[in-house]
Amino acid sequence: MSIDMGKPSTAGRAPGVEEPPDTGVGTPAAGDRHRLTALQGLAALSLDAMASVAYGPESIVLVLAAAGAYGMGFTLPVTLAIAALLAVLVASYRQVIAAFPDGGGSYAVAERHLGRRTSLVAAASLILDYVLNVAVSVTAGVAALTSAFPELYGERVWICLGILVLVTAVNLRGVVESAKAFLVPTAVFVGSILAMVVVGLFRDGPVSTASAAGHASALGEGATTVGALLLLKAFAAGCSALTGVEAVANAVPSFRAPGARRAQRTEVALGALLGVMLIGLSILIGRFHLQPVEGVTVLAQLADASFGHNAAFYVVQFATMVLLALAANTSFGGLPVLMSLLARDNHLPHVFALKADRQVHRHGVLALAAVSAALLVFSGGDTNTLVPLFAIGVFVGFTICQVGMVRHWCGERPRGWRAKGALGGFGALLTGVSAVVVTATKFTEGAWLIVVALPLLVLGFEKIHRTYTEIGERLELGRIPQPPQRSRSVVVVPVSGLSRLTCQALTAARSLGDEVLAVTVTHPAPEDRRTAEALRRDWESWKPGVELIEVSSETRSLGRPLSTYVRELAQTHPDAQVTVLIPETEPAHLWQRLLQNQRGSVVAHAVRRDTDAVICRLRFRITADAR
Question: Which of 92, 278, 446, 483 is the most exposed place for a label (fewest CB within 10 A)?
Fold first, then answer.
């Protein structure tokens, strides 16, 4: 088996090269048929950000509630600050998309402007965030389901795994198929939230408080002062609503041409919808003088206050539950593309750079599903176990990306570069402070795992890169090799009996080598000696023109005696290329492979382990209509 050390080719264009115009006429090209439009990108890559409105405002309220009713009055100002940061991030990521149309987001920015080591920190933080997003989204969706149907609580882990399998299966069919599948749930959720905001603005007071009735208030008593630290904690907690904003910039290659332009439109639409929903919900919180209560979400109370405890209330709850469960799709859209870029740069195994049909990075999708499944089992399907680990990684990525773009503008110096650089610097300051505050406040609740996992991932990337570098040096990649020379070839064919397969194997061997040797392994047991004698007689009668060599083995092993013979043959023929041609049958049906004795695999493994011989496996296909 050979190792391909060459970097997989990138599918993007060089910065500054114009993409073909999007005429909007006719059908998309064959490759573009499996890529995203702007609307499909909004459905496939924005579910994480959209779903965060279900817990972003609640995170702000729960922090401010420690200061009592007076603290709740700062919900709107804190939300406006978060919306301002959102605008900064959207503007910045639009520029990232234009400057890095091959995708990668903060990883690509840091690699070009901040150095390889910093880019690996950005990549590691994004990987952690994407994996945790899958686990948090699925468990949060299942938590909403078990709240409505408590009898399912004991089966929550299996339900989580079932949803994960569903989302994985949809993504294995292609990013476009996932976008089509999730377009309706996304539209229902966004429509219901916007409708709730509009209806609530025309209410003088809450229509109903039935959902909160009988639940203990989480509002602090006797606290009237609001300090800068509390506001900073509320801001950092509410910034969890910004997770997922970076996903579009990471997955630009998934869009139809012109990919960068479509991705920019998707980024702006995502920012606008998310900002409107966050601000609208915070206004309703102040308008209805909402107080957080135990066991009921803020979003449920707002739906109750705006619509009343009726069918519309349950539509909002059901749409929230579905979107939370499916928000994992954002990770499946962004992480495999990021992993392909890391593999291209020799920081992950090259298998992650391969694309299957429908433009799917299948190995990245399956790897994400496997790690997420392990997290779901480890947490027992409990959202609270995972939430403290969430959002730290994305803040680190935000900060690195903003700093990298400041370096970008200072280096390129286009028109208005000072304003763009100042905007990026301000955004880096805000997200950096948020990362520090969240890590500090959540450290003992599990955030220490991220602090440990981040450098371990970076060390893993470095180890893989060094390994590929060492292999590349041994293969002399990048150098012009010596002219190929013809050497004498000896082909060894393992045989155990005479058949049509043996005939085809020797025919292929004689066409490949200067000398062909048929080798059979014999054992001292009486029944084995009789079999060996029968094979020798049949061979002499057949007269194939190839010498039959018997290798004796005291044990019943097959692979080691053959590999020992091949190794000795290579030593006696130092100038010859030794090839082992292993004949095997390939049944017509998959289940029939269970009937095979796997002798070929045993021999191939032993020869590969113990020798430097070339291994050639000859497949004899047995078709269903064979006579």
Answer: 483
- Does the pTM exceed 0.70? no
> CA geometry: angle at 588 spanning 587 and 594, to 5°?
45
CB neighbours of residue 449 within 10 Å:
15
SS (H, E, C) 472-536: HHHHCCCCCCCCCCCCEEEEEEECCCCCHHHHHHHHHHHHHCCEEEEEEEECCCHHHHHHHHHHH
From the CB of residue 31, how many other CB atoms can be counted at a distance below 10 Å?
11
- Say if residue 416 is exposed, middle or buried (CB neighbours under 10 Å; 0-12, 13-18, 19+): exposed
Q: Say if residue 212's pLDDT is above 70.
A: no
* Pairing assessment for the beta strands 614-621 and 488-494 based on DSSP bridges: unpaired
CA 288 → CA 69, 109, 284, 410, distances in Å?
12, 44, 6, 47
C-alpha Rg value of the chain to the nearest Å: 31
Question: Rounded to whole angstroms, how far apart are CA atoms 531 and 538?
Answer: 11
Identify the CA nearest to 78 among candidates 64, 89, 94, 99.
64
Read off the pLDDT of residues 585-609 as tens digits, 9 standing for 90 and up: 877 777 766 666 678 888 888 888 8
**Cα angle 37, 46, 78; round to 5:** 140
Q: Hey, what are 477's tokens? A: 């990649």
Q: Which residues contact 282 (CB under 8 A, 6 or more apart)?
A: 57, 60, 75, 76, 78, 79, 80
